[in-house]
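Sample entry (170 residues):
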Amino acid sequence: MFTAAVVTVSDRGSRGERADGSGPRIEALLKERGYDVVHREIVPDEAGEIERALVRLADERDVALVLTTGGTGFSPRDVTPEATERACTRMVPGIPEAMRAASLEVTPRGMLSRGAAGIRGGTLIVNLPGSPKAAIENLETVLPALEHGLEMLRGGPADCGAPVGTGRRA
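Predicted structure, serialized as tokens:
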């Protein structure tokens, strides 16, 4: 079983002015798919705070998968991808490319997501949209392949020839 954390990026959510609609739904889906969700938090749309949360979860908590939700749009306050890029040592462009491609099947606005994905140590960090519906749609698109990536990243036995979703969890 892999560990996971969910970081909701929202100014209003961090001030308690709006309920977190995406975080609990992401957590529920992860648990349904066998992940051990060890942490969930809300941070404001501040690049430094987002980056510190990602670094802490990777370096101090050694969480295998960190998912962010929110801050991936065009607003001047949407800085989650930039914070993610600063926190990561290697980027994984295929994950957000796959999410954008799947989103385009639902809406032409899918191309407007600036979400990123990358690696820090043994942690995979993936940005999801802030909309609960879009966050779940995007996560369902990539979740079957993430298990294999996490097995390779965490040093477990990863069978590159196995069908998606049949690998062993480290």
